[in-house]
Amino acid sequence: MSEFVSPPVSRRRALQSLSAGFGYMAFSGLATRAAVTGTGSEFSNPLAPGKPHFPPVAKRVIFACMRGGPSHVDTFDYKPALTENDGKTISGRKLMESPWKFEQHGQSGLPISALFPHLARHADDLCVLNGMYGDVPAHPQAFVQLHTGSFQFVRPSVGSWVLYGLGTENENLPGFISLSPPARVGGAQNYGSAFLPALYQGTAIGQLGRPVKEASLRNLSGNRLGRDLQRRQIDFIQSMNRDLRARHQTDKQIEGVIESYELAFRMQAAVPEVMDLGGEPGTVREQYGIGG
């Protein structure tokens, strides 16, 4: 019987395969700082903000996925033909017009239903995209198609594409996060990076169905080591890294990745501060179900 010995895993491979942890996340911030300060000429950060085709206006992208919310034909997508064919059966399905009346608002004439009388006052400040469509009637598959563009094949999520195309200026936090994502209807695929490098995938904070006050960032919470002991641990790891660097002065990019442990250490201080909502007004915390 032959023994199978798995090949040794390089540090590059380990960091890539463990990218869901804080190693690669920290590297993105470290390299971003190097790109801004001009001190990191030895390696290039793939998450550094790139030069867009047009002058940037938006500072961030917030995608609120209102699963189970009102239909598009009852909110912003006016369908006159649906009203004309109300009650007719097409392809085995009976058509039903919207029970809410649509009116045009603002100088743009944006159609908005009677469901949103207050939002309609700001019609000229809104941009409504009605160019998307789905060809899957089943909700779980359509949910994945909404986020990735396909329900049959594994594709990067829209958030991963935004991060891939525009980068991020964050130094201590991920550039793409998903708040309380569902475990079903596609799960992590809805914020995954698919064939893009893993550092473009979203970082989940919390889980659907659990109180937001219990939300946390995996791999950066529940540390059993005290800060002083962890500092000593990182110093020991870094001393071995420096010894290895002295023997093998070849891959400068990996040198930068290994040194990202320093930033990971700082992330453990930055993330709890971001997640701490104690400084928010009581009314805001009540709206998010905190303290109830």
Q: Output the structural class.
A: mainly alpha
- Any low-confidence stretches, pLDDT <50, length ≥5? 1-6, 11-27
| Global Rg | 24 Å
SSE series? HHHEEEEHHEEHHHH
Helix content: 25-40%
The major β-sheet equals: 2 strands, antiparallel
Tally of separate domains: 2
Beta fraction of the residues?
5-15%
How many angstroms separate the termini? 62 Å
The tally of beta strands, per DSSP, is 6
- Average pLDDT works out at 76
**Helix tally?**
9
User: If strands are numbered along the chain, what order do they take across the biggest sheet?
Assistant: 1-2
- Categorize the overall geometry: elongated
What does this structure look like?
The chain has 292 residues and is mostly helical. The chain has two domains: 10-68 and 137-292, no CATH class; 78-129, no CATH class. Helices cover 33% and strands 6% of the residues. The chain has helices at residues 11-17, 22-37, 80-84, 139-148, 158-166, 227-247, 252-258, 261-275, 282-287, and strands spanning 89-90, 93-94, 102-105, 110-113, 177-179, 203-205. The strands form three sheets. It has a two-stranded antiparallel ribbon with strand order 1-2. A hairpin with a 2-residue loop joins strand 1 (89-90) and strand 2. The longest helix has 21 residues, at 227-247. The N and C termini lie far apart (62 Å). 20% of the residues are buried.
